[in-house]
Amino acid sequence: MFNKKNLKKFIASCISIATIAIPMSITANASTYSRLIDNDPTSSSGNSSSSNGFSYINGGSCYNGDARIILSGNSSNFYHWIHPKISLGGVKTVTVNLQVYLNHANFTDPRASYSVYKNGASLTVGYINQNTAAGGWNYKYASSNDFTGLWLVSVSPSGQPNCQTGADAVNVTYTY
Ligand SMILES: [Ca+2]
After folding, report:
1. Ligand 1: distance of its center to the CA of 119 in Å?
2. Please, where are the H alpha helices in 52-168?
3. 128 CA from centroid of ligand 1 (Å)
């Protein structure tokens, strides 16, 4: 069928096709899900929010003009940004890229804790010093190999007294 010269050519072309095809197939297999969620989303957006004890605060620097805030002393308080629940159809590795909008002088919590839902428990994505955070979008990411579903982003206060924890918009991207 092949003489030596043609066989070499054939093998070389197979290798070059494989080299091109492998990175493309990795990209094609990864799924990405992204959601930008602000306070009090409309029901038509498919998102919702809930909290225990956070209060309304407004200000032109906030995303869409307002946010929510709470004293930082109790770390069991929470604010949830909820999106439509996604079942991953099994256990998967998920990388979470989280952007958090912070732009109000009263947000002073030195270690606000951000997490995402994971199998009925949670994965801590990271901590942000809201007192020194950049005015605007702040970025955290984390990865874990035992996700079965995606549902919400949560912030909880540090527990530090005499500070306040803010909750404005978040933009979450999951890759799995
Ligand atoms: Ca807002």
Report:
1. 28
2. none
3. 18
Q: List, in order, residues 6 or more apart from 81 with CB less than 8 Å away.
A: 37, 47, 49, 152, 153, 154, 167, 170, 172
Architecture of domain 31-175: Sandwich (2.60)
62 Cα–ligand 1 center, Å: 6
Give the distance (Å) from ligand 1 centre to CA of residue 68: 8
What are 108-144's pLDDT values in tens digits?
999 999 999 988 789 999 999 999 999 999 999 999 9
Bridge partner residues of 164 (DSSP): 71
Rounded to the nearest whole angstrom, what is the distance from the C-alpha of residue 135 to the centroid of ligand 1? 14
Return the domain boundaries, the chain.
Answer: 1-29, 31-175
Does the predicted TM-score (pTM) go above 0.85? no
d(CA 26, CA 97): 19
- The region, left, alpha or beta by phi > 0 then psi within -120 to 50, assigned to residue 20 is alpha
